[in-house]
Amino acid sequence: MFLACDIGNTRIKSAIFSNDKISDKKVAAIVSDIIDFYRREDVTAAAFSSVVPEKSKEFSDLLRQRFSISPLMISDNLKFNLEIDYSTPENLGTDRVCSVEGAFYLFKRSKKYKTYDSNDVIVSVDLGTATTINFVLYPGIFKGGIIAPGVDMMSRSLHDQTALLPVIPSSEYKQLIGKNTKESVASGVINSTVGLIEKSYSELKAKRKPQNIHIYLTGGNAQKIIPHLKIKHKFVEELVLVGIKSIYEKNIGV
After folding, report:
1. Which of 36, 98, 105, 151 is the most buried (most CB within 10 A)?
2. Spatial distance between the Cα atoms of 23 and 40, rounded to a whole number of angstroms
3. Residue 132 host element (H or E)
4. What's the number of domains the chain is made of?
5. Each residue's pLDDT tens digit, 57-98
């Protein structure tokens, strides 16, 4: 079985794949909790992305100790299923690469891929600590995208940079026009994110005129935003982990 792991600053997301199906998954804050959770699984291969170097080493060391395997760490010097058309690939976060690779992987396995051509654009939207929007043009070229503060980051920033504004949970959002400070902050945070996604969609439509825009959403803040989106999309909770698996297969030759 294959273990994919996405090590972030606050959370570690992981899943066990049996072929293309997820048989188990775990989210934790500590590397050892992830490894302990899978101790009874027959893990024969693994790959991971990480933005925390010390956790990367711990994860690799524990996998070698528990399962006698050396995991593949996702980095910019690997081969990708997408052509990376980005001027600073060394600074392109692996979470963005894995997110958009996951979207491309799933699209290629959908019925829509049969008619894939220059009229299609694939988009991954990761609503995590940051909000990132990533664009793939035919025949599989990652062109770059957008990085913006995430939902929680915006709320904390308003609190940190002002004297009177508290940290507001997005659940306080009631309507566009807030009737008190809490509702007003929540409206600003939610509508900033929704507006960014929908403007990206409308501008892409206007400038490139694609017939089809295939949007894949993921991330811990996705459920806060999805109810307010008016554009068609597909939510995939494990999108980054699917991307990690697809990159592993490209490099190991599975």
Report:
1. 98
2. 13
3. strand 130-137
4. 2
5. 999 999 999 999 999 999 988 999 999 999 988 888 888 999
